[in-house]
Amino acid sequence: MRIITGWIIRFGILELFSVFFILMNLIAFFLYVIDKRKAEKSKWRISENTLMFFTLVFGGIGAVLGMCLARHKTKKIKFRIAMSFGLIIALIPAVHIAHGLTLDKMIHYTEIEFRSETWPSDLDGYRIAFITDMHTIRHENMKKVITELNKRNLDLLLLGGDFSMGGEHYQGTVKEIAQTITTDGIFGAEGNHDDYKRVFAVMEQYGINPLDNNGFWVREGFYIAGVHDMWNRNPDIEMAITNADKDDFVLLISHNPDVSMVQSTVGVDLILSGHTHNGQITLFGIPLYLLRGSITSYGMRFANGFSVSPDGVPVYTSNGIGDYYTVPRIFARPEVVIFTMRSTE
């Protein structure tokens, strides 16, 4: 079992499935070609059940190529029907494999212009980047993200939690993040995978401000707050924003967006979350996994992008940037979100 697990970790689930998928289609292709030659020489044949199996179980592309090139079984109705279904069955994973091995490994920088009547007009154009769910992102990839962010004239960087606590990986991730150039610093909350004491200690070591059911004024009229993760401890939005003035723009970080549904968000103007990874593995971008209720209690409400709390406060849920250990992203592209803030006055 350890050997199998080691191979999966080393090569990756998606990569191994890709090899399996290619093999199934090659087998299907050669089965049709070989069976055609055997038929021409009146030799022992490959059973139709075997051909059907490889046609319908991920081998549809190879089967179609074999049938067409060898001109074999193309006049039999049941094989023509099987060929159609087999091709569809094979194309679905083929598209997902291709997406997972290409675009889903490329971080997308989502630029959003956010307007609010409570945003201080003298801070128009203020730029805030949000990174969450770093998990096992490689240090060299994290470094590339920070290099890119340093080209984008940031005023503030916010962290939504979830590092890899295995060994010292999280320390290297925090160290890279700390290289971000901002006007007003870096602030971060904890995620459900974090040992908050260790993460917060390393954050402080590198000059990053932990948000621990509390908040700070970043600029006059702009208050940033963060709460505990609801799976780890006791998030308290009221406590986190208690020091904010009535007229302040209050931005809250909550790793789990579900907090916005079970606590009052009155007094908050924008909530940033992560946690759901947009389902991690989706069907053409539809995060069916979230319907299980194990990650969020609200289905696809907090898959990705904007939703609202019961109090009408905008909640932005990011896909996050890291992989969840060996589980690949499929149609759930990693992202860094950058908000350009503007007043509506």
Explain this structure to me?
By secondary structure, the chain is of the alpha/beta class. The chain has two domains: 2-101, no CATH class; 109-343, 4-Layer Sandwich (Purple Acid Phosphatase, chain A, domain 2). The chain has helices spanning 2-11, 13-40, 48-56, 60-70, 77-101, 139-149, 169-177, 196-205, 237-240, 259-262, and strands spanning 108-116, 126-131, 156-159, 186-188, 209-210, 214-219, 222-226, 249-253, 270-273, 305-308, 314-317, 335-343. The radius of gyration is 25 Å and the shape is elongated. The N and C termini lie far apart (62 Å).
Q: Summed up, what is this model?
A:
The protein has helices at about 1-10, 15-40, 50-55, 60-70, 75-100, 140-150, 170-175, 195-205, 235-240, 260; strands at about 110-115, 125-130, 155-160, 185-190, 210, 215-220, 220-225, 250-255, 270-275, 305-310, 315, 335-345. The chain is an alpha/beta fold and about 350 residues long.
